[in-house]
Amino acid sequence: MAERAAIRSSFSRAATRYAAAAGLQRVVCDRLLELLPDRSAGLVLDLGCGTGFASTGLHARFLQATHCAVDFSLGMLRAHERGNGVTRVCADAHRLPLASASADVVFSSLMLQWCDLPVALAECRRVLRDGGHMCLSTVLHGTLAEIDDAFAGLDAHRHTVSFPAPEVLVAALTDNGFVVDLMRCETHVEYFADARALLQSNRDIGASRVPDGARRALLGRAALRQVCNRLEARREARGLPLTYQLAWVVARASSGNRS
Fold first, then answer.
1. Model pLDDT for residues 33-58, shown as the tens digit of each residue
2. What is the residue-wise DSSP string for 86-118?
3. pLDDT at 114
4. For residue range 191-224, what is the model confidence (pLDDT) as tens digits?
5. Residue 18, Cβ neighbours under 10 Å: how many?
6. Computed over its alpha carbons, how large is the radius of gyration of the chain?
7. Are 233 and 150 in contact (CB under 8 A)?
8. Which of 39, 112, 191, 217 lies most in the core, judged by the most C-beta atoms within 10 Å?
C-alpha cells in the first residue's frame, strides 16, 4: 500500500508537466484509439486516464455512451481535459468502484505496467459484461533497457519497473477470462540530447518511481557520473537512445469467466 501511495504521489507531482512531456504516450494512445471495436456501448471506462489524451477520441467513437475516466492520481484528474460530460473518478485499478458486468469497453493506455497485472486484469474482467472489450496498450520486457544497463552493478536496487514478456501478457489475459483478438508489438526508440535529459524524461511523466525494491536515497555524484557516462557511450547520430517495447491489445471478455 505504501508503494502504491508513493507511485500515486509521483504521478500527481508530474501532472502539470505531463501533457507537454508525454509525446510517446500520446502517440501510443492515438494508435490504441484506432483499434477500438466497431460496436455500441453503454458505459466506456478510460482506466488510467491521465490528463485525458483519449477523451475526445472515445467520445467520437462512442457518442451515445456514458464515459467514466478513472485515475488513482488526483493531480492527473485535476489536469484532465474537461468537457464532453465525462465522469471523473479517483480510484485504483486493483479495486474499481463499479458494479460487476456494468461496462462495455475498458480502454487503458500505458497504465497496466504500474499494476499487479493479474489483479488489475481480473478487476477489469469483473466490471466488463460478457463479450465486452478490453483495449489496452502497455510496455513489455526490454523497455528502458539502456537505463537498466547504465545502473547495473552500482547498487542492489531496481531502477525501472519489471515489464512482462509478450507471452506473459497473453497468459495473464487468458487466465483472467479474456480472449485475445488482436495483439501488435513494436519497438520504439526515443532520442535525447544528453544523459540528464534522458533521465529527466521519466521524471517528467511521473514514471521514475518503481513499485518495489527502489532506492530511497539520492545517488552519489560519482555513481551518477558513471550512469551518465554509460548512457553517453551509447550515443548515436540522433542522440542518446531510450528503447520502448510496446504492445497494443484488443481482447474480449469471454462468457462464464467473470472473477
1. 999 999 999 999 999 998 888 999 99
2. PEEEE-BTTB-SS-TT-EEEEEEES-GGGS-HH
3. 86
4. 999 999 998 887 764 454 454 545 444 567 888 8
5. 23
6. 18
7. no
8. 112
- The closest of 93, 99, 82, 88 to 48, measured between CA atoms, is 93
The residue whose grid cell reads 547504465 is: 150
Give the pLDDT confidence of 226-255 residue by residue, as tens digits: 999 999 999 999 999 999 999 999 999 998
AA letter at 255: S
214, 147 Cβ separation under 8 angstroms: no
Residue 17 has pLDDT above 60, yes or no: no
Q: Are residues 172 and 118 in contact, defined by beta-carbon separation less than 8 angstroms?
A: yes
The sign of the CA dihedral 74, 79, 85, 86 is negative
Q: Cell triple for residue 92?
A: 485504483
Q: Which of 25, 75, 13 is nearest to 208 (CA)?
A: 13
* Residues with Cβ within 8 Å of residue 29, at least 6 apart in sequence: 53, 54, 57, 109, 110, 137
